[in-house]
Amino acid sequence: xxxxxxxxxxxxxxxxxxxxxxxxxxxxxxxxxxxxxxxxxxxxxxxxxxxxxxxxxxxxxxxxxxxxxxxxxxxxxxxxxxxxxxxxxxxxxxxxxxxxxxxxxxxxxxxxxxxxxxxxxxxxxxxxxxxxxxxxxxxxxxxxxxxxxxxxxxxxxxxxxxxxxxxxxxxxxxxxxxxxxxxxxxxxxxxxxxxxxxxxxxxxxxxxxxxxxxxxxxxxxxxxxxxxxxxxxxxxxxxxxxxxxxxxxxxxxxxxxxxxxxxxxxxxxxxxxxxxxxxxxxxxxxxxxxxxxxxxxxxxxxxxxxxxxxxxxxxxxxxxxxxxxxxxxxxxxx
Length: 334
Prior knowledge:
CATH superfamily of the largest domain: Jelly Rolls
Shape: globular
């Protein structure tokens, strides 16, 4: 059977710092009073496998699809490298309150401790309150001893690089970089498939049971790359052209602002491609096939807050924006 653009059921995560904006701004099914901090859009992590919601493959999870379709789904190069492990994790995040100051291990440390990859990631700001801030990297020369002293004194924020953010800003966070999301920010997060996080500082915040949330100082201090200074990525996207945001060994991300129908040719890309819609809406239409009798298998709508996976075997398709246009993040592994 021929593959087609795949949509997955979001996995909503309650977080102490979450709010309701994934419902009001990103069209998720958030119930009144829920503190939803994350919508996992596409995940292969054990216990959090994303399930297809459209077409004849509905009900199958991403790992089951890889087992059956192999490189037709994820691409020859990706399959050769990662086998039946889906290598990336895609999220939308609502920071209704500030998140902990944290760090993720790099590949070497994660392989040594857990036998898995590390966690390099990037952020694309979808919406931000006036004065909202992100913290990425140290603002000067810092070593482990100095960092630990600032943690004990509650002054860790004083040695971090502060970024005032606005809609459309983007940031790359290599594994080992200290970082935190401030209050009042909605963003898309693209990352290696890992859920390993070490908290350095959490403002003495307590969980629902009244206990201070756990810190992971020994591992965190070992994981830190003290030399990295985070910088905002300067973006000047051109309409109807794919503009590079991040190019790394872990993933590549472009932004595409659509105002008119566009024929998309991926050529011989040896990877799946994921589109995350961060503004407006669009229709993705792939080649019809005798195997796909239902038009919903060849024509997929993607609106703000939705994510679609394009299998590697679909080289050509069209993108048609809605009346208000569309802004899409395009992600793959090169």
